[in-house]
Inverse folding.
């Protein structure tokens, strides 16, 4: 029988989420009903996937059932991830265990003319300011004739 790979990533994600719920059960009280429901959907989805690959004539019906179960499982996984944020908080560093990115502070932007403190870690490259140049390119001065102007062309 061919190896089941089409939904392997989804199934592994759900297994990891279930394992995280079991491992941190004391931190996320009340997630048990959602976890058991996701376990049931995962088991049924695996059975249907095996059935889908073993049947050639009714493959489309099995595929439709499998797609419905995957949609149900994704919804349950979304609910669990949303549920976990409440007891742990949106800034908890345990959230990545459940596949949720924690809210972290962003870098502070500076206003024009504001100087960053040395401890900010941001460095601004020093560009020498030489009169008549802009970032290393020479800018013609107003008293020098320009090649594109009529008085600067040699005839």
């Amino acid at each position: 029988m061919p190896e089941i790979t089409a939904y392997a990533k989804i199934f592994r994600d759900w297994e990891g989420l279930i394992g995280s719920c079991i491992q941190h059960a004391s931190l996320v009280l009340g997630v048990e009903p959602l976890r058991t429901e996701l376990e049931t959907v995962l088991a049924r989805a695996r059975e249907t996937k095996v059935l889908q690959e073993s049947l050639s004539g009714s493959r489309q019906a099995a595929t439709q059932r499998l797609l419905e179960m995957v949609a149900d499982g994704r919804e349950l996984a979304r609910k669990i991830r949303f549920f976990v944020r409440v007891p742990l908080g949106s800034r908890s560093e345990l959230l990545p265990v459940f596949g949720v990115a924690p809210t972290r502070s962003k870098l502070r932007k500076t206003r024009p003319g504001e100087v960053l403190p040395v401890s900010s870690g941001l460095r601004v490259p020093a560009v020498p300011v030489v009169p008549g140049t802009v970032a290393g390119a020479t800018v013609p001065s107003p008293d020098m004739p320009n090649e594109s102007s009529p008085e600067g062309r040699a005839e």
Notes: Residues 8-98 form one domain. The helical segments are 8-23, 32-54, 59-88. Strands lie at 133-134, 137-138. The mean pLDDT is 78.
